[in-house]
Write a structure and sequence with these properties.
104 residues, 3-stranded antiparallel beta sheet, 15% strand, alpha+beta, 61% helix, 2 helices
Length: 104
């Protein structure tokens, strides 16, 4: 996405060319403006390229979180039995926070 910039007071403000929406401002130096624009273009390129890997990353993350939660539930079932209780629920919460039954 192309950007444009204007000097406002002692700093440069960057705007989107198509919508005119303000993206952000930098210090008053041309070097700071150049770095800011470079960072915007890099982030934009990564967004286009990384969309597929973004979805797989969150699928993997969700799967690992579910595994950790299932592990805590299984451990609580072993210790407190299958019947629900406040002790069992509290143990599951503490396990998920990492305070008891940590993986070694």
């Amino acid at each position: 996405m192309p950007y444009t910039h204007k000097k406002v007071g002692g700093k440069y403000c960057v705007y989107k060319k198509d919508s005119g929406k303000k993206v952000g401002c930098t210090k008053g130096t041309k070097e700071a403006l150049r770095r800011y624009l470079a960072a915007l273009h890099i982030a934009e390129d990564e967004l286009e390229v990384g969309l597929g890997s973004f979805k797989t990353f969150f699928k993997q993350r969700k799967a690992s979180e579910e595994d950790a939660q299932d592990r805590c539930k299984r451990k609580a079932d072993q210790v407190y039995g299958k019947k629900t209780s406040a002790y069992k629920s509290g143990a599951i919460v503490r396990c998920r926070k990492g305070k008891i039954w940590k993986k070694k």
